[in-house]
Design brief:
CATH architecture: 3-Layer(aba) Sandwich
Number of domains: 1
Bound molecules: S-adenosylmethionine
CATH class: Alpha Beta
Shape: globular
Structural class: alpha/beta
Radius of gyration: 17 Å
Number of strands: 7
Oligomer: single chain
Helix content: 25-40%
Strand order of the largest sheet: 3-2-1-4-5-7-6
Length: 220
């Protein structure tokens, strides 16, 4: 049975960190790797899309203890776990969908998202990434570490399977359901470029997990 996205993560917030670090291949490598790519300057402002319990932030605070984080997540219990882990950190936590929450423009030095955006289509991502690009300061960047489809065929299969399951279960609302529908790196890159990022680079890869860096370069 498909579960609504926030209900799926709400049920799994207890023990989530342990589950990710023991069951997700290469998690012990890609979380610290992602964190290392974020700015190390004191007091930088970072936006985290789908921050959950803050696994990537745990590593980031080791590189930059004074970073100011705005974290957006649909699931209140994941955000509560994050707040309880880092009571002394500068955290602004917003419970809502990153598709709906407005982002202040020219505000963030960098943004990050880990293992959250593989549930959405290219059409859904372009307006989100447009909003994200505007929210970054000049020369700011977005680090995306996520699970990707390894071929166009896989991407179509995941997408069609979600449509089939929704039809079978009589779901016709526009809510988010937890089912992985990753894009290929090529289609993700197209979405980021269409949103106004000037450069998108693949920095690393572990199986089907990739790290991409999208930069908002201001050409004078
Ligand atoms: C697999 S967890 C990843 C959490 C964290 N980034 C990590 O890597 O441990 C996915 C998170 O994305 C959140 N999420 C999914 N769709 C979302 C949306 N539209 N807006 C905000 N958060 C979302 C879920 O609530 C969940 O906490």
């Amino acid at each position: 049975m498909l579960e609504k996205m926030n209900e799926f993560f709400d049920k799994r917030s207890d023990g989530y960190d342990e589950h990710m670090m023991t069951n997700i291949e290469s998690a012990e490598e890609f979380y610290p790797y992602t964190a290392e790519l974020l700015p190390k300057t004191d007091g930088v402002k970072i936006l985290d899309l789908g921050c959950g319990t803050g696994l990537e932030l745990e590593y980031y605070f080791k590189c930059n203890p004074t970073a100011k984080i705005t974290g957006i997540d649909l699931t209140a219990s994941m955000l509560n776990a994050l707040k309880n882990k880092f009571p002394e950190k500068d955290l602004t936590l917003i419970c809502g969908s990153y598709f709906d929450v407005p982002f202040e423009e020219n505000t963030f030095d960098a943004a990050v998202s880990v293992e959250s955006l593989h549930h959405f289509t290219k059409e859904e991502k372009i307006p989100l990434y447009t909003k994200l690009c505007k929210a970054l300061k000049d020369n700011g960047y977005f680090i995306l570490t996520d699970y990707f489809a390894l071929s166009d065929e896989d991407e179509h299969t995941f997408k069609n399977e979600l449509l089939r399951l929704k039809k079978e279960q009589g779901i016709d609302d526009n809510e988010f359901y937890h089912y992985d529908t990753p894009l290929t790196v090529e289609h993700e890159t197209e979405a980021l470029l269409a949103a106004g990022f000037s450069d998108v680079a693949v920095l690393n890869k572990w199986g089907a997990t990739f790290t991409l860096k999208a930069t908002k370069q201001v050409i004078i």
